[in-house]
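During the second half of the funding period, the structural biology subgroup turned its attention to how the target accommodates small molecules. The most pressing case was CA2, which had performed well in the primary screen but for which no bound structure existed. We therefore specified the complex as follows and requested a full 3D prediction, including the ligand pose.
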Amino acid sequence: MTAILILNGPNLNLLGIRQPEVYGTTTLADIERDCRKTARQLDVDMDFRQSNHEGVLIDWIHDARQAFDGIIINAGAYTHTSIAIMDAIASVSVPTLELHLSNIHEREDFRRVSFVGKVAFDLIMGHGAKGYPMALERIVSHISGKT
Ligand code: CA2
């Protein structure tokens, strides 16, 4: 069965808990629940993880080489800074989709730079929490060769 790893980076554990005026009221647990529902509908296995630590995210990306067919990553602010995460994604040769809640191209200039984007096959952004199930559908269709 196709297995997808969904990774979430720093501060995303605070979703729905802090600054709801900026990032909404949906929690990461709500998002995980929605993703599990979509994964069941698509008949895929899914692992959903969050860490505030760059090295932990890198270790998880390395895990994907053996155990997963695709990675969806919202690397949070590491998106804009981490050459190490970019190198890790490039090293595993697992199709990777970049995901963001907000439209990073319509925010501050420093968010326009994405190191993850240099190694991802596609980008979904600006759809809030709904972007997560959309990303699952997109990566499954990419892996099955439909898009
Ligand atoms: O839009 C996204 O998904 C981001 O990856 C979110 C990151 C931001 O640094 C990226 O530029 C775009 C920030 C996540 C912070 O999440 C919080 C949630 C609640 C309270 C505070 C932060």
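Two results from this model are relevant to the next phase. The chain has a mean pLDDT of 96. The longest strand covers residues 3-8.
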